[in-house]
Amino acid sequence: MREKGLAGAGGAQGRDAMALKLLFWELEKHLKSSSGASVVAIDNKIEQAMDLVKSHLMYAVREEVEVLKEQIKELMERNTQLEQENNLLKTLASPEQMAQFQAQVQTGGSPTSAAQPPLPGSVGTTQALPPTQNSGTSA
User: Fold this and answer.
1) How far is it between the farthest Cα atoms of the chain?
2) Is the C or the N end of the chain the one with fewer CB within 10 Å?
3) pLDDT averaged over the chain?
4) Distances 35 to 10, 21, 22, 27, 43 between C-alpha atoms, Å
5) Does pLDDT of 77 surpass 70?
6) Do residues 19 and 11 make contact, with C-beta atoms less than 8 angstroms apart?
7) Does 14 or 82 have the greater pLDDT score?
8) List of residues 6+ apart from 92 with CB closer than 8 A
9) The whole model's pTM is what?
10) How many CA atoms lie within 13 A of 5 on its CB side?
11) 13-21 — which CB contacts under 8 Å span 24+ positions?
């Protein structure tokens, strides 16, 4: 989305920059030639330059807001996906696994560490998921 906006905006930004340079060049030329005779014309040129800068900044801000909105949308979708995965894992976990997880959370341990001690009564046994749930995707 941002690439498309930038490609289309490159010409507009280039024109704005060129127009701004032209305004300042005309202002400089006018200042050198008129020695203060036409203050109104100078004020108009300054106002035009300030309006051009303002519109350029507003465009940049709007573009950044669009990028941030897109990032927020993606993060919200990812959060929803992780919440669903978390709920699924909670339903598939045994009461012993949930108790171990709660103990690790309370002690500040990492529940995802690779060196977790085996649960009592689970030595030599493995818990297999049903075939329909085992083939799902995970993050």
Assistant:
1) 97
2) C
3) 76
4) 37, 21, 20, 12, 14
5) yes
6) no
7) 82
8) 129, 133
9) 0.46
10) 11
11) 13/56, 13/59, 16/52, 16/55, 16/56, 19/52, 20/49, 20/52, 20/53, 20/56
What is the amino acid identity at position 129? L
The burial class, CB within 10 Å (0-12 / 13-18 / 19+), for 59 is: middle
Residue 125 is classified by DSSP as -
Place of tokens 């103990």: 103
Per-residue tokens: 14: 């280039």
- C-alpha span between 72 and 93 (Å, rounded): 31
128, two tokens: 């297999």
For the chain, how many residues are written?
A: 139
- What are the tens digits of pLDDT across the range 20-38? 888 878 777 766 665 555 7
